Amino acid sequence: MESTIRDLIARALQEDLGPGDVTTEATIHAESRSTAVLLAKQELVLAGLDVSREVFRHLDPDMKFEPFARDGDRVGAGTEIAKVAASTRALLAGERVALNLLQHMSGIATLTAKAVEKIKGLKAEVLDTRKTLPGLRQLEKYAVRVGGGRNHRFGLYDGVLIKDNHIRAAGSITKAADNARKRAHHLLKIEIETKNLEEVREALAVKADIIMLDNMPIDMMREAVRLIAGRALVEASGNVTLETIRAMVETGVDFVSVGSLTHSAPAVDISMKIK
Hints:
Elements: H1 3-17, H2 22-27, E1 33-40, E2 44-45, H3 49-59, E3 64-67, E4 74-75, E5 80-87, H4 88-118, E6 125-127, H5 137-146, E7 160-162, H6 164-170, H7 173-183, E8 190-194, H8 197-205, E9 210-214, H9 218-228, E10 233-237, H10 245-249, E11 255-257, H11 260-263, E12 270-274
Parallel strand pairs: 6-11, 7-8, 8-9, 9-10, 10-11
Antiparallel strand pairs: 1-5, 1-12, 2-4, 3-5
Helix pairs in contact: 1-3, 1-4, 3-4, 4-5, 6-7, 8-9
């Protein structure tokens, strides 16, 4: 487990526990040990099992964690996901943090898997975005991969994406792209966001590596793909839902980026029950 994730777990536990779990300390003897199971209460794609294990390990280094499934598995309602044997106080103190992370990550993986299934048989790939909860991006983007999607850039540092506000501030697509080629190192690809065919033509003229078609109607998107004709990779973006994603991909784009995978994925229902 990476140190950054351990730090995140430590902060989450501190937020929840503060100086101590007063209910558990008042009702449970310090020497008590118990076994609990993590139980899926709906069909889901599992993600975050190692993270939940680390929560309990943080509170009880001697705990025993036995998984019955792996990240990426599709499990049904009523399935026991894992068994944890530990200090009873550790189980009760860690329950909420472990479940919050596991439910959130599995929710992202489950929604991503649904999006991937919607475009099955087509060439495009499902991408996430930077629309993540602060501090949780590493876990959320991992959950997207578990669900069968791919990661877009991780942050502002690993790819040039010239968006509408960059274009306005620089003066034009051409000026923004020229500035980027002068200042960004040669290994960084340049993607340009466009909202109409005129901007697509300008992005082609400056030899963008990737052209994003943002919030375009389907007919315009199809015409943009025809215009680009393989001279750049094409990404569709904007208001992508499970109902609209296939029609967007059928226009011939290479990627479709879906912000809702991380910013709006509903948490799945997982519980912990002490035996």
